[in-house]
């Protein structure tokens, strides 16, 4: 029983750290006003590049975090066909599946002026508000 309680507390702790990463980003795709998107940069393609790079950063961070959390459940066995998944592991995986996609999170951060970017060629630079 002690093992179960400690693993449940680990799951609660992991969910709390993931809850701190919640954003106002929608879970589904919505229609955006193009004027809001290319207003700060003056170029829609530059805006897309900024959002894409930030989405890639978010994706890498999330993947590393998930892999680190799932490492705790790794079970080394000689038989490759045998797969052991426990309930806590499934709950963590489902939680990450329900998070907004990195692109939507990055776009929301851009619209909320939470992304730092600069273009040395044009001199355009924006910092967090």
Descriptive report:
The chain has 129 residues and is mainly alpha-helical. The chain has helices at 2-19, 34-38, 44-71, 87-98, 102-111; strands at residues 117-119, 124-126. The protein has a two-stranded antiparallel sheet with strand order 1-2. A hairpin with a 4-residue loop joins strand 1 and strand 2. The longest helix has 28 residues, at 44-71. It is elongated, with a radius of gyration of 19 Å. The termini are far apart.
Give a nutshell description of this structure.
With 129 residues, the chain is mainly alpha-helical. Helix content is 57%, strand content 5%. The protein has one domain (31-126).
Strands, helices and their partners?
Layout: H1 2-19, H2 34-38, H3 44-71, H4 87-98, H5 102-111, E1 117-119, E2 124-126
Antiparallel strand pairs: 1-2
Helix pairs in contact: 1-4, 3-4, 3-5
Helix content: 55-70%
- DSSP strand (E) fraction? under 5%
Cα-atom Rg, whole angstroms? Answer: 19 Å
Strand arrangement, largest sheet?
1-2
Count, helices? 5
Give the termini separation: 49 Å
Largest sheet: 2 strands, antiparallel
Whole-number total of structural domains: 1
Short key terms for the protein model shown above:
129 residues, mainly alpha, two-stranded antiparallel ribbon, 5 helices, 2 strands, 5% strand, elongated, disordered N terminus
